[in-house]
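User: New here, please read:
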Amino acid sequence: MAFLAFKNISKRFPGVHALDGVSFEVERGSCHALMGENGAGKSTFGKILAGVYTADEGEILMDGQTICPASPLAARELGIAMVHQELAFCPNLTVAENLCLGDLPRRAGWLDRRRMREQARAMLVEIDTGINVDLPMSSLSTGQEQIVQIAAALGINAKVIVMDEPTSSLSVSESENLFRLMGLLRQRGITIIYVSHRMEEIFRLCDGITVLRDGRHIITERVADSNSNRVVEQMVGREVKVYTSKHLEQTPGEELLRVENLSSPGKFQNISFSLRAGEILGFAGLVGAGRSEVAQAVFGLDHAATGKVFVRGKELPPHSVLAALGAGIGLLPEDRKRLGLVLGMNCRENISLSILERLCRLGFVRRGEECTLAKRYVERLRVKTPSMESTVAGLSGGNQQKIALAKWLARECGILIVDEPTRGVDVGAKAEIHHLLDELACEGLALLVISSELPEVMNLSRRIVVMRGGRIAGELGRADFSQTALVRLMAGIQAEAA
């Protein structure tokens, strides 16, 4: 008998049938992958198991017994926990307070802080980590936050842990630490439901795989019986071909952006580069190398930055976002949910947000023009949404990214900085975004693309600037591209050899 059995699970949201009669089984102590395009229903399924959502129809069995976790607390009592992609704790409280929040130790009616810290330390020791329990959660890295979530799961004697895109924001070393912890969990007989888009992780870590498409179950099989191409075709219902950038066949135009000796204390030093019309310049580097910080400084967000930024030969005033916008620079940030979108607004409002001054007359937005504009970009980017009035928070990660990009396309920027364009995006949406970026370059835009995925930055770029420790470690032309060369520059191996 399977440890977990899902029978005809269905879930509807307004205008969306997120899950439609999904059935499959999971073995005890296994790591079971849940895959599909953005919007396929993976995260919804995980949240139903973890008690965040309640299924409209269907049945969940654990060890042959029907369970119905109607809340995260009910799921916790059943031994089911979830490691979220984003922070799931109170950032203003300490690690100890967060770990013990569900069952705070008391003495004579008062919080026993000494025992609380002891309990928290014991939970962290159990997974062999020495995080200071007195630190506020807001001071931890994303990798440390996820370790604390795993410690919290073990603290409730979890039998099942759902991991939703756990490595999407982790460095290589943090990911390796997470994989080590997953091995410890499996040795204890804990079952892991692993939601991810990353094929290499699935085939390295998982025993079984279930593929969803448009809310429906496509297949469940052993990982040993599958391969990457097979999974991709199951996910998207068609063969996904590797996209070859067409802008590389064209000659770049005039220099649109030039950066000279850009520096910011404690972040980066002496950064200089140029970018021409019709060119995609890639920025590569390890997490913390300073790539995103450079992008923010070029956009005028870093008030401590020194150096010069020129657009079409004209120097921009320092520390001015308005000047950057006026010069035609757009910035699609790495954290789309916190910095790229207003999640409580709908698709139409988010797309028009960057050009409201053009759409307003006498202080009022011309709704007809706004709707026409939003519809044009929703159709061009093939955004999957029930309507333009749908709240952006309800869209999948890939469709949120498209809306964030549409906002800058609507502004008709000549220079576009795109930070991690496909983070948390499935293979189908990734291919569409790659095609769109190439199309923009063919139209004469100058793009600076920051990506931690080496195949992505190599496929898109004409040149790649590599950063290490806040400095430029080197620049490679397309003829010299290789993952080995990039990794050596990123890690400083060449400098050490010299």
